[in-house]
Amino acid sequence: MQKKLVAHCILLLSLFSLSSLAFPWSQSQSQEDFNQAKNYEGSSDLVDLQYHMGPVLASSPINLYIIWYGHWNQNHQATIRDFIYSLSSSAPYPSVSDWWKTVRLYTDQTGSNVTGNIILSGEFYDSSYSHGNYLSRLDMQLVIKNSVSTHFRPLPLNPHSGLYLVLTSSDVQVQDFCRAVCGFHYFTFPTTVGVTVPYAWIGYSGSQCPGLCAYPFAWPKYYSGRAPNKGNSIMKAPNGDAGVDGMISVIGHELAEVCSNPLVNAWYAGDDPTSPTEIADLCLGVYGTGGGGGYVGNVYRDYWGDGYNLNGVKGRKFLVQWIWNPTKRRCFGPNALD
């Protein structure tokens, strides 16, 4: 019965309305818009975030499986792994795990919170580009199917506590990537993969569109004004690469949303489940107090001038966008000044 209901739900939802991370600004924004340091941390009068009775990822632990699609730089992989490890590991305040505590405030109808225990449980290297150098949105599910059905070291197909993360390398083009989105999340179709499991995709933007998806470590080519950070300079990436450091924030964005809205029927604002505004969408481009209008907000700078707002394992530092706090009813992160 449950499988029939899920299948029916899938048929009702359009594949091309996947929950996506778009850009932190409109491509038609003027220089005046960029240079305004307005406070876009949110207002309870403007945001109507509601719970729609669907599940959240409350199982403990959540087993996260990474699919490395294409050819990957080992240093970039190490940075991403350390971010995943940091979600459930202690680090100096404000830490990645402190940031995740806001995601944990979201519950299902039984009162169960989003899990605080996310374990990197497996990795699959699709270096043969099993579905080519161009992937449609639907192809992501075929990539997952390949990773769990291959004869050589397949990932487990885990419908109970599995979460799949497809990461595409710099030479892979993805439908709508760099044109409309930097990442998205959804759930697999039983007719394609065999079961319903949540997944997210994020692409490496370092060579394709760093000015769009590696915000704020690069700026759009069309933007000719001053960079809207204090000091009027491009912010340096804390792990040395704009593409992977920008990717980290997109990964955080998508993980927050897939855990609080895995079947697109739990936490979101708006009346249309095929085009939901989710808990990270509400805070797009905000990384610190006062953020908004192209200004990231008050964040830290290390000795070399790298920008960050969270500490991770192994001394790592990350810059990750804020998310909507349902208790405070505003965008929030542990580096908030108030």
List keywords for this structure.
disordered N terminus; 8 helices; 338 residues; six-stranded mixed β-sheet; alpha/beta; two-stranded antiparallel sheet
Could you characterize the architecture of this molecule?
The chain is α/β, with parallel strands linked by helices and 338 residues long. The protein has one domain (55-332). It is built from eight helices and 16 strands. It has helices spanning 2-12, 31-35, 74-86, 96-103, 139-149, 190-193, 210-213, 242-260; strands at residues 19-21, 49-51, 62-69, 118-126, 134-135, 162-168, 173-174, 183-187, 198-203, 267-269, 300-301, 307-308, 310-311, 317-318, 323-325, 330-332. The strands form six sheets. A six-stranded mixed sheet has the order 1-8-9-6-3-4, with helices on both faces. Strands 2-10 form a two-stranded antiparallel ribbon. A two-stranded parallel ribbon has the order 5-7. Helix 3 (74-86) runs parallel beside helix 8 (242-260). The termini are far apart. Residues 1-17 and 25-44 have low confidence and may be disordered. One of its GO terms (cellular component) is apoplast. Its main location: secreted. InterPro entries: EXORDIUM-like.
Query: What share of the residues lie within helices?
Result: 10-25%
How confident is the prediction overall: mean pLDDT? 87
Question: Using DSSP, what is the number of strands?
Answer: 16
Low-pLDDT residue spans = 1-17, 25-44
Query: Major β-sheet, in short?
Result: 6 strands, mixed
The proportion of residues in beta strands is: 15-25%
Structural class: alpha/beta
Order of strands in the sheet with most strands: 1-8-9-6-3-4
Order of helices and strands: HEHEEHHEEHEEEHEHHEEEEEEE
| Separation, N- and C-terminal Cα atoms | 48 Å
| Count of the domains | 1
Rg over alpha carbons: 19 Å
Shape call: globular
- The number of helical segments is 8
